[in-house]
Amino acid sequence: MAAIDRNNLIGRENRMPWNIREDLRRFRAITLGHTIVMGKNTWLSLGRTLDGRVNVILSRDRELAVPGAIVCHSVSECLQHCVGDECFVIGGAQIFKLFLPLASKLFLTRIDAEFEGDTYFPEINPDDWELTSFEAITSETGFNLTFTEYRRCRKP
Q1: Which of 42, 62, 84, 94 is deepest in the core (most CB within 10 A)?
Q2: Would you kindly state where each structural domain of the chain is located, as residue ranges?
Q3: pLDDT of residue 156
Q4: CA 85 to CA 28: how far, in whole Å?
Q5: Distance CA 2, CA 149 (A)
Q6: Running DSSP on this structure, what letter comes out for residue 137?
Q7: Mean pLDDT across the stretch 54-67?
Q8: CA 126 to CA 24: how far, in whole Å?
Q9: Which of the following CATH numbers is that of domain 2-152: 2.60.120.260, 3.40.640.10, 3.40.430.10, 3.40.50.1980?
Q10: Is the omega angle on the peptide bond into residue 33 within 30 degrees of 0, that is, cis?
Q11: Is the pTM of this model over 0.85?
């Protein structure tokens, strides 16, 4: 699950380069009550665990301990915490690259604008994904957004 600009940008200096309330509301509505998987940098950028969700953090740091979160050191270890639940990978770029080949669904908020940044969502092969949901809105801040949901139709 990610928000991306026209160039697949997702971040700048370990932060999202935008603050779009409608996207944050959608993120909360979809992930609430489920497991979310994130990298250490994403957790650091949030500054806390997210309430109402099982927070799983993937990190190479064997000393990392986060109250209210499960810290894992491999993709397979993370996946053990997703059994029987819909699991949402929420970033960052390295984590998206690791999990994208395993994903069966993809939730993207497409922002029709270009921002400055340094972190990008991985390229996806459109032949691997079928668009199953599409909603276009204009945010309170004037950005044109498209909330999309894709289903994997072909294995990578």
Answers
A1: 42
A2: 2-152
A3: 62
A4: 16
A5: 11
A6: E
A7: 97
A8: 25
A9: 3.40.430.10
A10: no
A11: yes
Per-residue pLDDT for 84 more than 90? Answer: no
For 109-129, the pLDDT digits (tens) are 999 999 999 999 999 999 999
- Residues 111, 123: Cα–Cα separation, whole Å: 16
Find the length of the chain: 156
Tokens at residue 120, please? 């990008």
Q: Is 144 in a helix, a strand, or coil? A: strand
Amino acid identity at 3: A
The residues, any chain, with a CB within 8 Å of residue 78's CB and separated by 6 or more, are: 37, 56, 58, 72
Q: From residue 118, how far is each of 4, 30, 77 by CA, in Å?
A: 12, 27, 28
Q: Is the torsion defined by CA of 99, 101, 105, 109 positive or negative? A: positive
Question: What are the b/e assignments for 35-74, b being 16+ CB within 10 Å?
Answer: bbbbbbbbbebeeebbeebbbbbbbeeeeeeeeebbbbee
What is the pLDDT at residue 21? Answer: 97
Task: For 30, list phi and psi in degrees, rounded to 5.
Answer: -80, -40
- CA-wise closest residue to 58 among 69, 45, 47: 69
Give the DSSP H or E segment for 133.
Answer: strand 129-138
Question: In which residue are the tokens 């690259």 written?
Answer: 97
pLDDT at 76 over 80: yes
